[in-house]
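To illustrate this point, we now present one chain and its tokenised fold:
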Amino acid sequence: MRRLLVWFIKDEAGVTAIEYAMIAGGIATVIIGTVQMLGSTTAGLYQSALDGFAPK
């Protein structure tokens, strides 16, 4: 049992997967935030352009 516990503590294969998952999660968060910010800005620009072409 002790050998199994020592082997489990020394095994770093799972740590690498967790690190990659954390990096991917951080990148995804930045991408989602950027798209949301740019999306609302772009929607406002399109609405301004449409308001300029609206019949009076």
